[in-house]
Amino acid sequence: MMKMKSVQDKVFDIFNIIFMLLVLVVMLYPLWFTIIVSFSDPLAVGGGKVWILPVDPTLEAYQNVFKSDMIWIGYRNTIFYTVLGTAFNIFLTIPAAYVLSKKTLVGRNALSWIFLFTMYFGGGLVPTYLLFKNLSLVNTPWVLIISGGLSVYNMIVTRIFFQTSIPEEIYESARIDGASNFRMFFQIALPLSKSIIAVMTLFYAVSRWNSYFSALVYTTKEELAPLQLVLRRILILNEDMIKEITSGSISGDQMMDALRKAQMAETMKYSLIFIASAPLLVAYPFVQKYFVKGVMIGSLKG
Amino acid sequence: MAKKLLALLMALVMMLGIMAGCASDEKAEDPDSSATSSSASTEKKEETKKEETKKEETKKEEPKKEETKTEEKKEEVKEESPYPGINLDSMWPVVEEGRNVEIDVGTRYSKAYEDWWTYKHFEEMSGIKINLNPIHQDAISEQKNLMLASGDLPDLMHYFGFSNADVVNYGDIQGMLLDMTPYINETLMPNFMAACKERPDVLVAMTTPSGTIYTLPRISSAANPAYMSMSYWNYEALAKMGLEVPKTIDEAIAALYQFQADDPYGVGAANMPIGGSAKHWGGITERFLLNAYGFVAGNKGLDLLDGEVVYSAAEENYAAYLEMMNQFYTDGILHPDYYTLDSAALKPLVEGGETSLLVGAPPYVLMQQGWDKFEAITPLTSAQNKTQQYGVGFTTMLGNWVVNAETEYAAEIMRLSDYTFTYEFAAYVTYGPKESDDATYGMFEKGWVMDDNYQLHYGDLDGKVAWNEAYPNMTTSLGANPSVGIEGNYRVAEGYTTFAICWYLQTGEWVKVPYDLTNGDDHYRYTSIKNVGKYATPSLPTGAFYFDEETSVRISDISALIGTYTATEEAKFITGTRPLSEIPTFQQELEDLGVEELVGYYAEAYENYTETYEEYLKNMGMG
User: Is A35 exposed, middle or buried (0-12, 13-18, 19+ CB in 10 A)?
Assistant: First the structure.
């Protein structure tokens, strides 16, 4: 039998709905703004005339974006780094977390402390750069896959999952039946860890997709640039065009071209933001349940 | 017990880690270097560099033996030529036939190229193999710092943006940069020496306090208003209102208020007498107005006032400027969004040239229609300043052509550098080669030709006047960074436009190409020379000042703090958020923040610069 709501409940519901709608608008409007600006005329955008709907709709920004080879190279590189990099991350994280979850591991505490130490202290950018340079990895795609191979935070979350979600008794019975450690890992632990693997894959993939700083530092070749770096370069293009214009020592035609580029860069950056975010926006609803589960997956229970 | 020992060991390791991570402060005078310098000390860099040097020395043992033999041979040859193996009889080739000279060049770029015409030209003509490592401009700061920290520098660093402080630090102190002084002579670099004779200020600016030179310059025209940012009066509106061009600040104020009252174009609410904003070209209209009060360059920071170095915002004259601007804001002479409008937002507000009396930036850049109504301002006088003067900036770019101290081919690189100080380079780096030179290297069809009307045409544009993004013949598309050598406008001060260099290359004669006043670009440059030329006054040449590392850091700290504070407080005074009665308090606050110390550093540097320059002129017989 449905419970009858009191007047107070109804008033609360109304205010609740209004409040949540406001929160929804606040959160969705920036995304909507990005979309409508990317389809609007640059002059209208510069004049602040775009608010709810596109003004003087045009596909010029997207045409300019897709005309550039660098966008496609950036997409290719980002997909490559994300797929391989995430696979490398999972390859390191899951086994490390599994073995550290075993209380019988010799030197377990020391190993855990060493991992933890790296969360707070590091050699710095210059020594890291020198390391990669001495390994002949600088200006190769492998530096962007190998660097950041293991996130200790993610490893700790995974370790807690292994400790709390898979009963020790399963391993004991497997051991009694003659299973080796490798067999227990591959045939017991891994099949039962699909959720944590999915969560960690998602975490690493999002991180890899959005990263640009490693590429900025360790590579100079244009053909190795990931999408976020290409996006960043176009985002700051506007400032550079203004600097060229203000130098006062370029010809008139160069100045006009720089100004056109500066105006177009305004709308192009919004189209780029949308293009760069689109794959993740599309993928998120499908992996949302894992993400929600993953937020709590590494927590201690009971 | 074991646990205690383990805990003690971990604590010790952590402490060592802290000590390693928290060594001496990194000299972060360049804000862009903060990401890379946050955890590395100067001492550590030197140690790393020494380790790297040792490793390199070990690796180079065998080649060194060959070098020793080569050096012995070179010594024998030396008596015959000061630079053996280098062609001194003509510009090209640089190296004598049969020599294999290969150099690594790092350069900054903003757009990716499949081919770089300028470096190809260098390679083909000089006989030097160039291994180019292009670095995108958004990564240049990080890459430069990493290269310097690791000691892994290319032979030539082009357009890396070494500041004067970098030059002193990495040149004088750490010895990583080549001292070019022994190579700058008539034998090896005749073109550069000729340029220095015409522009002695350049040589003074290049020389560090220790008397060494680590960078070659880019020499623009002697200070000339044709290439400066300034403000422009709407001459048509002045005529409509029956006003002469303002020559004093009072006349300017009266004209602006009359424009607001009369609304000569009938635009109504769109009327905004000052068509500018604080964000537009760095508040160029503000500089014009501040200049009226005696500040040569119209800077709110360091400037010259009555020949003395001052911090403008700390001076009494600045208060008069603030009061005027506050009145402008209150009465609507300034747009209500003056502090938030950027150039893109400003453009639609001034389009047509009928909404404003005074604008900043070349008018044709700001508006597609109506730019021809505007002409460059004439400097104003005021009760505080009776001299019409307009500051022209330091026009020499330094720090973009730097050589690795450990390069094997110093003389070859310096000889190649000399080419950048020819008129040919000045034209080619911007427009590409002339057709008759046949130096396209397969990258495009034909070079340029100038017609009798002094217009450039390119062979594969069906005779159309050039400049097209799709065509590789423009500065950045050529893959060239025109940050060294003679700039195209080198002789503008003498009345020769940039295209005059092309005509000279084509015909051998110098012609003062007339400005085409139907062209927006020519129009504004012509009016700038006409109206401001005779008032051009050298402003504070901060680009020629050198400070030691400690002073650089101190200057950087004070400047950042005071600069930001001045900008924000000025906005408050002008918009009325802070009462004008507190201006003396604000100026006292600036003193407390160290403005006198800052001015002291620059005053000393300016005095040294002036003395050095006068002494140099005397030595050259030009004083």
Answer: middle
